């Protein structure tokens, strides 16, 4: 459906000549990695089920944040939580799941994002642990992409030499930069709306299980969230710099609570999408 809409707009807008604002025309992001090592997809062997990509933040020579006594690293905790989420999702049998990394390896931010795109993921969740100068800071939070970042990324993607298959299989190679930018911007705005809706569901499901920051949902121009066609969130599971949060984050029972909340949010998210798709089909003439 989305690809058909973009295709129709591409035909209608193919003659557009409007100039982009200077800030959009000159934006730049890192190029797509030349080679991607795609991870194994786990869960039911059914291609019709949604695919969720779980990204354990940091890894390898990038340890991320550290605990106050330097005994724990963010990369290790993030991987353990990502695996707990994977196990919970596999057990559900309702989605397929893949990890961007399953061991202590380094991936650049663009690789993490493009792995999800290359696998045609339906949802991308990047798992991290927060830190702060004050040890009193506690609680989980979630980030989605900001509006301003969307505009800049749409412009940058449109200026790439190879624009084929940028959004949902729609070939933009014959489109002008102006038209490509419009289409990519449209895709990313829809993706951002879906990401925000999932963040709200995740807040509802996690609230009874773990401690959340008062301002749980935040917006930022994080590079790992900038896939234009994959709904993406970054989950800060707690503060590694806070001893109380750290004790929870290193507890298998607490990790299971995080994984359970994520599973419930994902199930609700895709159930809602199924209802909307069914309704749309019924309303079609």
Précis, in short:
The chain has 285 residues and is an alpha/beta fold. The protein has helices at residues 2-13, 22-25, 74-92, 109-118, 147-158, 177-206, 243-249, 252-283; strands at residues 51-56, 96-99, 123-130, 140-145, 212-220, 232-239.
Strands, helices and their partners?
Elements: H1 2-13, H2 22-25, E1 51-56, H3 74-92, E2 96-99, H4 109-118, E3 123-130, E4 140-145, H5 147-158, H6 177-206, E5 212-220, E6 232-239, H7 243-249, H8 252-283
Parallel strand pairs: 1-2, 1-3, 3-6, 4-5
Antiparallel strand pairs: 4-6
Helix pairs in contact: 1-6, 3-8, 5-6, 6-8
Structure commentary:
Helix 1 runs antiparallel to helix 6. The longest helix is centred in the C-terminal third of the chain and has 32 residues, at 252-283. The two termini are 15 Å apart. This protein has helices spanning 2-13, 22-25, 74-92, 109-118, 147-158, 177-206, 243-249, 252-283, and strands at residues 51-56, 96-99, 123-130, 140-145, 212-220, 232-239. 41% of the residues are buried. It contains eight helices and six strands. The chain is globular, with a radius of gyration of 19 Å. Strands 2-1-3-6-4-5 form a six-stranded mixed β-sheet, with helices on both faces. Helix 3 (74-92) links the parallel strand 1 (51-56) and strand 2 (96-99). The model is unreliable at 1-31 and 157-168 (pLDDT under 50). The chain has 285 residues and is an alpha/beta fold.
